[in-house]
Amino acid sequence: MKHRLGIVFALGVGLLGHGAALAQQPAPAADADQADPNAPPASPPAPPPSPNPDAPPTPPPPGDPAESPEAPPPVTLPPYLTGNTTTPLNPPPPPPVPGGNGTLTPPGPGADAGVTPNTLPARVRWRGSNLNWGTNATTTALGIGRDNISSSHEHVSMGFGLTLNYFILEPKLADGSPRGYSLRVQTAPGFDVELTNSDTTTTKREPLFRDLPVQAIFAKPLWRSADEEWGVSMAANGTVLLPTSKLSHDRGVYLTTSPRVSIFAIVPLRGKKADFLKNVFVGTSLRWDHQFTRATVPTNPDIQLPRQTLQGTMTMSDQLTGGSVDTNRLATGAFLFFDEKLFGKTFWLFLSGGLQYSLLNQPQTSGCVKITTGCVEPTRVESPTTTRYTTSFGIGINYFPASEWGFSIDYGNANTQIGLDGKRRNPFYSPEATLSAGLILSIDAIYERLTGPARDEPFIVFGSNKKTRGVPQAAQREILF
């Protein structure tokens, strides 16, 4: 931002002296010795006329100012010249930008009065909308991790996504004062293309569409300390997942409701005056998924498999597997988030972890099962498995060389607690662990730059509905703010 310093010079001109006005006065009396004795005595002078109250005021004599000029206002220098950060400037607000919401934040301390700044905070209501591209691969496909007997766990794919975000209620009112809460809606369509050869696709380079989330997110600050070093806020997220993915559609999923609630806290580290590590953003989340499905097990009417009945006869069935559908899932998570400046640009680092509880449907059987030899009562497992546990871990960075674009690199692992060998798995690594790299293109920031002025910081809504390969029932690894 270019700054101009306006210097005001006040020049006062004082006019000293005045011209004497010649008035009509009688001639001075002659000397007594020179007086004419025969002259008549002088008459007394006439009294002055009485003032007229309706007459206008007498104009001042030429050369006298009518009144003293007002002193010029004191010159207030910008804080970056005086070192004063407590006296803000009050420049007039810039004119509305075409295409904006009509109200822009006036330039802050340090901006020149009356000059529209080159950058502003994000202002359009649909900020947070972006295009994203990414590629991810299992660590085993990259030669990292243990050696596998086969390549069944090796997977490489490329994904494309679009995040659409819109603020129905802005965090601030039209006059710039805080509203106290905000409401936005969001959706994120996308698809993935597998680059390896596996049994999950039927054609080469088949695009696999993801489930489509439709979200309404209500956010509200709960508490802020007097020094603004500490803060607590919450977000309530009402999400509905539409079964647009091949996996959900083929398993008989009609709809998934996914309400969520998150608590965020800003915790100071070195203080807001520090150059780095000023604070850390921590939070915890709770999520409940309920699937509306065709049956308690995966079914597909388009696939008829021959099966043998208990009587020994053959029948056709649309049941895909004998495993239970995760009708209800409870997911808990926690995350840690740093916001720093690297080479003057925005740098983010995050850590996340979670535990998901999948509640399994129990089979409903009668006390008697009829077979060819009679009636048999089925035996039951004394301690059946009713819950499936899935752990997740993620670490990643995001860097934005400009507010219009940035890139991300992250590592993630999500797997069941018990592996195929019957042993507990490491929550930080498994054969399904993935490395991902992505590119984020902020379409709203590009729009603001084209219409002017450009924004000074990126505004990115993080969210992903990518499927995590290798986890039963396609558990989702997601970071959502």
From TrEMBL:
Residues 22-108 are annotated as: Disordered. It comes from the Bacteria. This is Outer membrane beta-barrel protein. Coiled coil: none annotated. Keywords: Signal. The keyword Protein biosynthesis does not apply. Residues 22-37, 78-88 have a biased composition (Low complexity). Residues 1-23 form the signal peptide.
